[in-house]
Amino acid sequence: MRQSELFAKTQKQIPKDEEAINAKLLIKAGFIDKTMAGVYTFLPLGWRVFKKIENIIRQEMETLDGQEILMPTLQPKTNWEKTGRWETYDSLFKFTSFYTKTELVLGPTHEEIISPLMAKFISSYKDLPKYVFQIQNKFRDEPRAKSGLLRGREFFMKDLYSFHKNEANLDEYYEKTKKSYEKIFKMFGLDKLTYLTFASGGTFSKYSHEFQTLTPAGEDTIYICDKCKIAVNEEIINEQNACPLCGNKNLRKEKAIETGNIFKLKIKYSQPFGLGYKDEKGDKHDVIMGCYGMGLNRLMGTIVEVFHDEKGIIWPEKAAPFATHLIIIGNNQKNSDKLYQNLQKTEIEVLYDDRKDASAGEKFADADLIGIPYRLVISEKTGKKIEIKKRNETKTRLVSEKELIKLLT
Fold it and tell me: Which residues contact 148 (CB under 8 A, 6 or more apart)?
């Protein structure tokens, strides 16, 4: 992509009510635009990052044998009444259809849709297990939408639901999802900062689990057991004040962002909708369910909160909008155009700063702000070579085009 043709520009001013680093940098660098509190437009660079995150999550869900679907945003009141959440879900967007007078919900989650859906297709033990996921926008009437992409009123989630004959089968799959989540965090360089965190499981399970990523920007407080390399949230600490695995009471207190969660729903949402199956003897049983969530907006915001400096964003390679940021300085249009074309031919993603009305200083400042992993410079000083520098390093070096392409492929 030529930067001269990119309609979204870097900004000098950001909305005064933005407090979070992720929002400030993403708006300033031209990745997102604020529509109102908790609601953002993804601009071309931001949408490329979003799609990178989405594709990695999708691939991992498919390795878990997940089948992708897309469920509706609009949900009927009757479904929420069956689960008892019409009155108890505190951030529910509710409204009445002007024409039909039907009371509806803008979906904040999809247990009330997936359970009656699967009841149409599951009737026998032969139909189990099944794994279904979607990546879809959610709506929550969030009272504290002040953290940029970390806490929005409209946002995207990956929901994976699993359906089982018994708890042993659920437990086995549950452990697989933990490992998949760990792989996702590792791909984005967050693995050393992300802890499997024990949380209250409510009525149907002793524990649920969150994945919490350490950062001073976090709204959650967790307590880390360095012996077990796991954490517990404040609710668990208040209940038992110790690591649930080893009993260690010498826990380290940290701030963190919840970047994923997994729950053993058991029969909480299958029973209200008659989601059951007949076993080999013809006896009827409720289907056992699991739920596994990950917020794409939140993950993107967390990456920025963790990977940035005073100059701007430092994207990990798997999330970056482009692999390289090519900058032309001075009168080297022919050489830089040729390199741009050759990089594209070798399928190396490149943002080409060919702007004629921007100074060298502006181009370098924008490159640091945007945060693409590799900066490439062609100028009179570089001659027939290309200056290359990683965003998170200060050292530059000169390489030939052949060396560059070998390095990047």
Answer: 18, 20, 21, 22, 23, 24, 26, 40, 301
Helix (H) or strand (E) holding 388: strand 386-390
3-state SS of the chain: helix, strand, coil percent to 5? 35, 30, 35
Which two three-digit tokens encode residue 284? 């009827």
Q: How far apart are CA 174 and CA 206, in angstroms?
A: 14
Torsion angle of alpha carbons 159, 163, 167, 172, nearest 10°? -70
pLDDT of 130 above 90: yes
**Whether the predicted pLDDT of 203 surpasses 70:** no
- Using DSSP's 3-state secondary structure scheme, residue 114 falls into helix
With 0-12 / 13-18 / 19 or more C-beta atoms within 10 angstroms meaning exposed / middle / buried, residue 311 is middle
The reported pLDDT for the residue numbered 358 is: 96
Q: 162: Cβ–Cβ under 8 A, 6 or more apart, which residues?
A: 129, 130, 131, 170, 173, 177, 289, 290, 291, 292
Q: Is the pLDDT of residue 206 over 90?
A: no
Nearest in space to 28 (alpha carbons), one of 43, 50, 38:
43
3 state SS of 159: strand
Contact of 313 with 370, CB cutoff 8 Å: yes
- Give 124's DSSP letter: B
pLDDT in tens, 284-297: 999 999 999 999 99
Which domains, ranges and CATH numbers included, belong to the chain? 3-309 (3.30.930.10), 324-408 (3.40.50.800)
Q: Report the chain's mean pLDDT, rounded to a whole number.
A: 96
